[in-house]
Amino acid sequence: MAFSICLLSWSATEYRNQINAADQLINLQASIRWGTNFLLKAHNTSSNTLYTQVGDANRDHQCWERPEDMDTPPTLYKITSSSPGTEPAAEAAAALAAASIVFKGVDSNYSALLLNHSKSVDKYRGSYQGSCPFYCSYSGYQDELLWGAVWLYKASGDNAYLNYASNNEGWSQAANEFSGLLYTRDSSNLQYATSASMILLVYSNILTAARVNGVQCGSVNFSTSKIKDFAKSQVDYILGNNPMKMSYMVGFGSKYPTQLHHRGASLPSIYNHSAKIGCNDGYSTWYTSSKPNPNTHVGAIVGGPNSNDQFTDSRTDYSHLEPTTYINAAFVGSVAALIGQSKEENILFTLADV
């Protein structure tokens, strides 16, 4: 959640004018505020405590039921001074700091609140690996610390954060989740494609602002236009320009996934089926059904195709059919950049015609 909020906040600051011109800035700010409110509540009990998970994930995964019907234990997990977790704490700090920039000229009191929490949420060093209950992919916390420091510097202007990031940028472990990659792994690969396209588009803007025409990689020069074109190809691929002619965004285009791996989408609404759907009933009746989901989760981007560019629309295939907030969050930045680019090109074409 923190990473998603941070990406959305980055898009809101990087492409504010473009998003505002598309009449979506208020909606984007509302989405960010929803997430930051959640993070604030997770940190409000004590500056030394951050709640990191709600629910027993092992028990939850044994059930396929609607949120309204959930009766599994709402177990709370937290990090404290005695059981630290730098990874989620630093990521939360980055999200709160980035969001504080978004609201600086909109709601100054809320912006200041976010920044204050951001400064205090990550006090104790220690890997989350030892206390993480579930979803514990681990690559060290150095990347989160750099990420958090950079956003804290941008939000506060405090050079201590900039010095920290500058002095530690040479860490031997590469943060390769933000590489310019096209295919990283079979499971939910579009999370890497969306984040890569967002980063490349931001980077091309930086090069343009610095009046640098591209970057040299070995004997090859990648111009800013080539970088943008590659990033755009990722967006186009996701929206249907691919071998399957499949839009991987639900509800977009004429052909898109109909069996999203998502409980709320795959189970009938309480308005159409008011009776409780039990833990096992959801699996036996709806999870294994070959019928399309009764609810269309418009806008959700799924994990995407496999390594052979093939895609089977089956909700049991969670690696390729499950949507995530961080896939969509990165996609927002890419689309916002391309909207701006499209408008600039239209202006140039109009001037050329004149």
UniProtKB/TrEMBL annotation:
It catalyses: Endohydrolysis of (1->4)-beta-D-glucosidic linkages in cellulose, lichenin and cereal beta-D-glucans. Its EC number is 3.2.1.4. Residues 1-172, 179-334 form the Glycoside hydrolase family domain. The active site is at residues 261, 313, 322. Keywords: Carbohydrate metabolism, Cellulose degradation, Glycosidase, Hydrolase, Polysaccharide degradation. It comes from the Eukaryota. Belongs to the glycosyl hydrolase 9 (cellulase E) family. This is Endoglucanase.
